[in-house]
Specification:
five-stranded mixed β-sheet; 37% helix
Length: 150
């Protein structure tokens, strides 16, 4: 496990939720002009809470003293691990925490799964660069269309 990374505990719920409420801008919800950014933030907050409270197989967190600075919620599906939601506090970005969180997941699931998957938006250049620098390769690309019905 990298330094300053550990597996989340229930006491970390609100720390992860706070990060989720201020981190995401390149996701499908924030990109949708029909979804208010405040509502998209609330969705991510609840997603993070649910992950720590049991939706995820494991949630890894980075921390500075007692403050949570990032999280990585992973799901297991058959022989694959999915990075379901990963976020680093905006003021902590660019310091290697995303790399540390991903490294922790890779180490934790080594020998337990045959592959790790992560999805990100094509416009999220920083995420694409991080994952590719760590050996991830683009396996598929998808375009999702949806309509809001009255």
């Amino acid at each position: 496990m990298p330094t300053n990374v550990r597996i989340a505990e229930k006491a970390d719920v609100e720390g992860c939720a706070a990060i989720a409420g201020h981190t995401f801008r390149f996701d499908r919800f924030h990109a949708d002009p029909e979804i208010d950014d405040d509502l998209a933030d609330k969705l991510k907050v609840q997603w993070a809470r649910n992950s720590v409270l049991g939706r995820a197989d494991v949630v890894f967190v980075t921390y500075d003293q007692e403050k949570i600075t990032g999280f990585n919620a992973c799901l297991v599906c058959n022989d694959s691990v999915i990075i379901d939601l990963i976020g680093v506090a905006p003021e902590q970005q660019g310091r290697g925490l995303g790399r540390a969180l991903t490294t922790a997941a890779l180490a934790h699931y080594a020998g337990k799964a045959t592959r790790m998957l992560v999805g990100t938006q094509s416009c999220n250049v920083a995420s694409l660069a991080l994952y590719q620098s760590m050996g991830f390769r683009i396996a598929a690309s998808a375009l999702t269309l949806h309509a809001h019905l009255p």
